[in-house]
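re: ur question from earlier - yeah i can do the single chain one, its not a big deal. heres the input i used so u can compare w yours
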Amino acid sequence: MAEPRGVVIAAPASGSGKTLVTLGLLRAFRRRGTPVSSAKAGPDYIDPRFHDAASGRPCFNLDCWAMGGGRVKSLARHAARETELLLAEGVMGLFDGASGGGGSTADLAVLLGLPVILVVDAPRQGQSVAALVKGFAEFRRDCRVAGVILNRVASGTHAALLKEALAPLGIPVLGTVSEDHGLAVPSRHLGLVQAGEHSELEDFLDRAAELIAASIDLDALAACASPLPDTAERPASLPPLGQRMAVARDEAFGFAYPHLLEDWRGAGAQIMPFSPLANEAPGADADAIYLPGGYPELHAGALAANDVFLDGLKAAAARGALIYGECGGYMVLGEYIDDEKGARHAMASLLPVGTSFAKRRLSLGYRRLTQSNALPWPRALRGHEFHYSTLDWQGEADPLFDAANSRSEQAGAMGQRRGNVMGSYAHVIDLEGAP
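and the output i got, formated as tokens:
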């Protein structure tokens, strides 16, 4: 098989349709027999699982703020293994990144040496589309816009007007996509509804593929791709929390980064999935339990009633297993969760904290995390925080992290630790200062 090549699918702003275009491209290439893989820029848990379903292969996050350059290149090569084409979907607008700089889709494209395909939302655009595309093409000389896809084009006449305006720029228009209201993806407070909850996902992806294949020149887009950087480097990674790790995996705990799970398997850890929503307990032989984030606030009543799961957590804590919860997992380790109507649901009571989804406040942004020696990880980590629930009550416990934002401004203590049980609202992504 030829060396993998790739492109970055980006847009001038969020909401331009790059996710739908990416999903349609992935499924369209797959349907015609082209081995295709994908990646997602930034700290996103939702879109990558739709990518998985569209391509039939795992999608990996590539985060230029939270990961070192060697790590990003290595993961890109890993994501593209045994395929011919990698489609890396960007985050937000092309040049949008962390507060204080870094982490943009453009940074990712430059680091990997890949061209950008710009998805332009066109329903209210005329000749001004040329000024928009010219500005994005010239804003950073090291970031090459190799093609344009015009999305939500109103008619053939509208498409001709837009193409005529863009012709002097010399940037190929690879396709014009009309709006299909039947392809709207349902949303939720943290983004899209998870792929596993989409009851007609395969039909949705096939319809998207048909629309994209009829609207975009797939061969011309593939011809824009550049080779991925060749690297034999395998950067240091977060070691596993234990050798036999029980990992919660269901609709309430769906936010686990694939690169971390792969790292832990590569280090020799046995990953043992279990479903709290199905009232399953973590394995009795697990020496570590990982509760990732997700949507426990939407399933608080069911989780509170699942005594096998909750008693299993308590038994694991009593026998000395390391228990670590992130965001939603942290909420479940606490005393209670108040749902959106204010109803209180008792949780595991392993940490002295109560959280509320009735009292909402958005907490969003990258985090620098310095920890105690409670976790078997190096002290300095990089992560991300994104939640609407709030701390309703907090008792006495050791803090887990000292946190700072992406500008290195101190944010104070974060999370809790009691013996071998610990958690916080932060999603850990990688080591601080990794190459």
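The first helix runs from residue 18 to 31. not sure if urs matches, ping me
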